Amino acid sequence: MADAVSETIANLADKTLILLDDDAPFRQRLARALEARGFQVTAVESVAEALTAIAASPPAFGVMDMRLEDGNGLKAVEALHAKRPDARAIMLTGYGNIATAVAAVKSGAIDYLSKPADADDVVKALLAIEDHSPAPPENPMSADRVRWEHIQRVYTLCGQNVSETARRLNMHRRTLQRILAKRAPK
After folding, report:
1. How far does Cα 127 stand from its chain's mean position?
2. Which residues carry this modification: 4-aspartylphosphate (predicted)?
3. Is the pTM of this model over 0.70?
């Protein structure tokens, strides 16, 4: 399957992609992975930077985070489709629910993935044929790993404050401390 995706990317005339995410380590990892798969990636961390990059040179593809410090990634998707109607964009979010998925699709996104998303899943979603769902992931993360990643993200967003993280996750502080002390599940 990876060979078919690589072959499809190799046949694309325009491989430009904008990656909008305010989580620097995730953005850098995903940008490197997408570049390794043949895309020409412009990685930005804010809606303002994305709008400027899109206005200067609208890419063929977009991978946008939903919630950002300076706004919502939906603005960038709408701007991308205004400049380039044939562009294919997907939304990433760590806070998935039905309402935000509907809003993403209405703004022009072709798919909606939860973070942290695997680069292969992102590429499959970007290159999926209209009206066909991409194949399910080969090696999806376990439920324990998704939970652990979400807890780590909230913990980081709370400035590594255990009490604040526990309050926001609606869990006991000691339970959270035990989870944070363990290694990441596979």
Report:
1. 15
2. 65
3. no
